[in-house]
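FAQ

Q: What does a record look like?
A: Structure on top, sequence underneath. For example:
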């Protein structure tokens, strides 16, 4: 008998009917107190060597319809190695076709990163003794918000990830970034620490992650639309980080995300905030050009359209930080699909590629620190 299970950390699916392996009917559940939905993560048990046809029948009402075009779902037997499986979007439904080798197999929108894995990894980083650790407060569900600090330089670098819990590539990127910082033999990390002090929030939205949300926290708030008007009763995650930033100042800010529709890695600047000028533009262009030289996975042709002059949304972290501190401030977007630039069809954009991409960012940060006084 086949079972569809999602009542676990970071899980999300509603099983309508699993009586026929060739016609399993599923629906994605929306965020608890908001209508966003796109993220799915479930386990199938008892299906070894059985051809499965699983139809998610409500994707036509999901948050980002264009995200399903040319999309392939991911599967894993162990939560570590993820691979793409045959997936068809017909404009109304998403159908996943796969014959698993094992009795238990996970299927997800992108490689899952539950809070259990997050806590284990944070424990490893703390145990390394290479970074200072603190808890700056709690989420609405009572989870500790971890903060890491390292470096002796006078330039204050802030790096955060996972404001949107369904964008798990942010956590895989953070694994690569923090692992590089904890390597005693990593000369690039040593050079960056000499030039800058790094402030790192590995996961902004722990509640949404554990609940299996796409975009919001326990109160149904999109954290990346709460930076100008945040409150402790609705978005303590943003309040606490913003206050910490006021203590330290900010010369560099990177917010790590994923984009559902655009099948490439790209950076979004804070263009057309009220104070946007040549200095802002020159810093962003310099960082982009350095990353383009460093990484074969980066490109600058695709990205978000610029808002009207002076009309950038200051509720967005990237724009709020740039306007408040006049610094180089960016959002990194990675794809849920395979990247069109330097594609790898078997895995698509993957955890390993996220981790490697983070190391390339670290190299560029060490270079850009020289001009961010």
């Amino acid at each position: 008998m086949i079972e569809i299970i999602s009542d676990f950390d970071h899980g999300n699916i509603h099983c309508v009917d699993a009586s026929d392996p060739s016609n399993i009917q599923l629906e994605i559940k929306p965020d608890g107190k908001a209508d966003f939905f796109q993220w799915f993560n479930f386990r199938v048990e008892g299906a070894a060597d059985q051809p499965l046809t699983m139809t998610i029948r409500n994707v036509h009402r999901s948050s980002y319809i264009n995200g399903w075009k040319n999309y392939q779902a991911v599967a894993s037997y162990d939560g570590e190695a993820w691979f793409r499986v045959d997936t068809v979007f017909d404009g109304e439904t998403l159908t996943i076709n796969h014959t698993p080798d094992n009795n238990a197999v996970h299927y997800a929108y992108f490689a899952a990163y539950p809070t259990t894995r997050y806590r284990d990894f944070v424990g490893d980083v703390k145990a390394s003794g290479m970074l200072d650790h603190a808890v700056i407060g709690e989420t609405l569900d009572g989870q500790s918000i971890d903060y890491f600090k390292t470096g002796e330089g006078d330039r204050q670098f802030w790096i955060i990830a996972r404001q949107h819990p369904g964008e798990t590539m942010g956590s895989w990127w953070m694994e690569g970034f923090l692992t590089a910082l904890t390597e005693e033999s990593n000369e690039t990390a040593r050079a960056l620490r000499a030039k800058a002090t790094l402030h790192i929030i590995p996961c902004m939205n722990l509640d949404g992650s554990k609940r299996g949300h796409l975009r919001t926290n326990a109160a149904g708030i999109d954290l990346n639309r709460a930076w100008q008007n945040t409150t402790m009763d609705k978005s303590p995650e943003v309040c606490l980080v913003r206050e910490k930033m006021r203590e330290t100042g900010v010369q560099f800010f990177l917010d790590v995300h994923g984009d559902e529709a655009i099948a490439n890695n790209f950076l979004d600047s804070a263009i057309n905030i009220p104070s946007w000028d040549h200095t802002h533009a020159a810093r962003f262009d310099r960082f982009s050009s350095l990353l383009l030289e460093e990484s074969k996975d980066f490109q600058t042709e695709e990205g978000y359209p610029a808002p009207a002059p002076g009309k950038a949304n200051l509720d967005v972290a990237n724009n709020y930080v740039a306007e408040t501190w006049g610094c180089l401030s960016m959002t990194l977007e990675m794809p849920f699909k395979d990247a069109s630039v330097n594609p790898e069809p078997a895995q698509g954009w993957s955890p390993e590629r996220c981790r490697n991409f983070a190391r390339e960012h670290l190299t560029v940060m060490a270079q850009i620190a020289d001009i961010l006084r």
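Q: Is there anything notable about this one?
A: The domain at 115-371 is CATH 3.40.630.10 (Aminopeptidase).
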